[in-house]
């Protein structure tokens, strides 16, 4: 198209697209049948919630990773020690008086007797049992019993684990504390959700009041997002019976759902108010808002969902569960924005600006000529080299800590102090050392009784390995075809030294003893499982990032008919994500500003966080990228002036993008301040930083700087590629006013 061709003339050459007519008819039906639409949504949220409450949930923290050495150890236990193939839980006792006193021994014996016959409990080893390991602390005030279950935590019914917890805690009294730990306990015990969602919604209300100045205009996006998220969370609870969904998934889905749901509804409501300002009636304004902003929202939501599908490339059940949780939340709030919101706008009609705040009401008209955003863009463009370089350097500086990122699953030491899992962790560390919270289970497969001497030698060599505090005597099965050694590290499960110890045992210590024999020994246990899963996830991170970036590059080329703009968008996204990674490493791994965000102690980054964060951040940043660049492209097609197109595009979209990003930032940041779960604090901080960086340094500085420096090259595409690449342009043919 020539530079002098108007945008309207360009639209005359664009054939009608089925998607546009479908969206227009859809919006009209939702408007015309708004009472039916509202009743259906109310019945859905009541019905799905009731069903989920009746059926219950089955969350699972199963972080296994395929045929790893820890899985091979589990296989040996399953074949040689069927009774020990399940997981164990620790019941930790702490007494003010000596734990070996007659009264305390009687209390512990009574707890053991009551636990033993419970469903799925194979055996309970008392700290005073003749065959017990070192289960009484040297201080004489702490001891623990071991509960052996008949299966792994992901297969244990929650009712059985809760029965163990209730039975043990019944003995808790003043001067005699009982706490429980272990993977089975962690699978059913989690912190109650904090007030994070409420704080985020409150912040969104205040921001939209400033953006709209109207109570009605503010309330509609909030109602829409909460309806969609409510049904999404209820559906997620049903999905837990079909997929491996971690316990933190609902809070994570709420974090994403509230942020994108309010943003999507905000974009549509803003366009509706613009339609009213243009003189369109409410029905026509609803149709136009869905055909324009609604189509952009549909595209934006689709990019988030497509990005989340990248987590399926990891090939792990719990990652698929995390992705599904977020996908369900995004799809439901997207559906609410495209169906429920048009109906609510029909009820509001011309009264959307009623109940406005004095002096704050914003009209739906275009921005003031030469307003702040136009002048800001011109300011940046005149100093493009300087401003672009400074912004890029700040992003690189924020990203530098990511090169020291250490991936490992955090342990119960990061749980809130109020949880019994954290209390058990602290008591075991106090009485026996931090390594007792993560014993290494060495499963041995033997050809027969003659190999028992080799097992004794293996125990001696492992015990002499630096980093090992103790190794209990081997336990053999009846046929002497298998043995179990339990080694306690000197360091906590999430410590880097523990990871090094596991690698040393596997690569050097154990092969040196069993090489040339028929003995097979593998290091397993919860700690080894976590280490193997972290290693596996780290190896898949680049695969997921590469796949998402390539697909997004091709997709954006089809949307904007340019090679340069998609390349710029990919680089900008990488810088934003890199800055977010760097900040979470500095805060949670190095301990910077730890007291501000309320972390107990430093530790590694859970390995699922970087890969999940990337897929979500890419989708979220693409929302703003498409919203801004589509408007800039519209101005470019209209004027052919690149600099003016960037300035006008930023002037039109700057306020709404900033408001949307501010809402999302507040939602994410609220999880850092108020949520008790460590992993959600990490995730919330990373997302909040990425959104803040994206809307300030990227959209306000780097985009206008780079597009000014590139000039007309922004819109370059080889002719041959343009002929074969499908067009997914965002232009819409609108009905007349």
Q: What brief labels describe this structure?
A:
single chain, 737 residues, alpha+beta, 4-stranded antiparallel β-sheet, 24 helices, 7% strand, disordered N terminus
Strand % is: 5-15%
Largest sheet: 5 strands, antiparallel
Unreliable sequence segments: 1-20
Structural class: alpha+beta
Radius of gyration: 30 Å
Shape by Cα distribution: elongated
* Strands, total number: 9
Number of helices: 24
Portion of residues in helices? 55-70%
Distance between the termini: 27 Å
Look at the structure and give the mean pLDDT: 82
What does this structure look like?
- The longest helix has 35 residues, at 526-560.
- It contains 24 helices and nine strands.
- Strands 5, 6, 7, 8 and 9 form a five-stranded antiparallel sheet that branches.
- A hairpin with a 5-residue loop joins strand 7 and strand 8 (482-489).
- It is an alpha+beta fold and 737 residues long.
- The protein is 62% helix and 7% strand.
- Helix 21 packs antiparallel against helix 22.
């Amino acid at each position: 198209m020539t530079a002098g061709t108007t945008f309207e003339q360009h639209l005359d050459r664009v054939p009608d697209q089925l998607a546009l007519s479908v969206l227009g008819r859809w919006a009209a039906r939702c408007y015309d049948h708004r009472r039916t639409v509202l009743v259906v949504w109310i019945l859905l949220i009541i019905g799905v919630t009731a069903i989920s409450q009746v059926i219950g949930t089955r969350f699972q923290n199963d972080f296994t990773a395929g045929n790893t050495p820890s899985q091979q150890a589990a296989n040996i236990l399953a074949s040689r020690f069927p009774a020990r193939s399940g997981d164990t839980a620790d019941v930790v006792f702490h007494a003010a008086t000596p734990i070996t006193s007659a009264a305390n021994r009687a209390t512990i014996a009574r707890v053991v007797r009551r636990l033993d016959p419970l469903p799925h409990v194979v055996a309970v080893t008392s700290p005073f049992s003749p065959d017990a390991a070192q289960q009484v602390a040297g201080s004489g005030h702490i001891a623990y019993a071991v509960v052996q279950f008949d299966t792994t935590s992901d297969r244990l019914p929650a009712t059985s684990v809760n029965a163990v917890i209730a039975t043990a805690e019944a003995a808790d009294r003043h001067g005699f504390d009982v706490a429980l730990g272990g993977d089975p306990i962690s699978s059913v015990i989690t912190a109650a959700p904090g007030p994070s969602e409420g704080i985020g919604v409150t912040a969104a209300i205040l921001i939209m009041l400033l953006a709209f100045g109207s109570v009605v205009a503010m309330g509609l996006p909030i109602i829409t997002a909460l309806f969609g998220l409510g049904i999404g969370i209820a559906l997620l609870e049903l999905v837990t019976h079909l997929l491996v969904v971690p316990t933190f998934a609902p809070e994570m889905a709420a974090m994403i759902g509230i942020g994108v749901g309010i943003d999507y509804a905000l974009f549509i409501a803003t366009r509706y108010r613009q339609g009213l300002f243009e003189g369109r009636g409410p029905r026509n304004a609803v149709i136009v808002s869905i055909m324009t902003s609604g189509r952009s929202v549909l595209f934006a939501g689709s990019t988030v969902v497509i990005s989340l599908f990248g987590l399926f490339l990891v090939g792990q059940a719990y990652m698929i569960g995390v992705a599904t949780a977020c996908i369900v939340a995004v799809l439901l709030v997207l559906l609410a924005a495209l169906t429920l919101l048009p109906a609510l706008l029909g009820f509001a009609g011309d009264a959307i600006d009623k109940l406005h705040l004095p002096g704050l009401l914003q009209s739906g008209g275009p921005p003031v000529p030469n307003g702040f955003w136009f002048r800001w863009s011109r300011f940046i463009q005149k100093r493009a080299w300087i401003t672009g370089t400074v912004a890029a350097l700040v992003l690189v500086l924020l990203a530098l800590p990511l090169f020291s990122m250490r991936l490992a699953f955090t342990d119960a030491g990061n749980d809130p102090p109020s949880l019994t899992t954290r209390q058990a962790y602290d008591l075991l560390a106090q009485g026996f050392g931090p390594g007792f919270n993560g014993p290494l289970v060495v499963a041995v497969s033997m050809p027969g009784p003659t190999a028992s001497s080799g097992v004794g030698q293996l125990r001696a060599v492992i015990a002499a390995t630096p980093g090992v505090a103790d190794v209990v005597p081997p336990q053999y099965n009846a046929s002497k075809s298998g043995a179990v050694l339990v080694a306690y590290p000197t360091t906590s499960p999430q410590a880097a030294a523990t990871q090094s110890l596991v690698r040393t045992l596997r690569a050097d210590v154990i092969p040196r003893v069993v090489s040339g024999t028929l003995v097979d020994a593998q290091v397993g246990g919860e700690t080894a499982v976590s280490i193997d899963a972290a290693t596996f996830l780290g190896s898949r991170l680049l695969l997921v990032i590469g796949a998402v970036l390539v697909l997004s590059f091709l997709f954006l080329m089809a949307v904007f008919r340019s090679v340069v703009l998609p390349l710029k968008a990919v680089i900008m996204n990488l810088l934003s994500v890199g800055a977010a990674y760097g900040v979470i490493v500095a805060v949670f791994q190095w301990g910077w500003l730890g007291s501000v965000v309320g972390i107990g102690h430093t530790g590694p980054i859970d390995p699922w966080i970087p890969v999940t964060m990337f897929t979500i951040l890419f989708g979220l940043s693409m929302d703003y990228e498409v919203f801004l660049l589509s408007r800039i492209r519209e101005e470019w097609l209209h004027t052919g002036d690149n600099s003016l197109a960037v300035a006008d595009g930023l002037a039109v979209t700057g306020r709404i993008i900033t408001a949307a990003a501010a809402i999302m930032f507040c939602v994410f940041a609220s999880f850092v301040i108020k949520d008790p779960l460590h992993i959600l604090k990490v995730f919330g901080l990373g997302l909040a930083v990425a959104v803040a960086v994206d809307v300030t340094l990227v959209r306000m500085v780097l985009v206008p700087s780079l597009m000014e420096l590139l000039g007309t090259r922004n819109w370059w595409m080889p002719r041959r590629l343009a002929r074969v690449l499908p067009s997914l342009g965002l232009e819409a043919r609108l009905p007349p006013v």
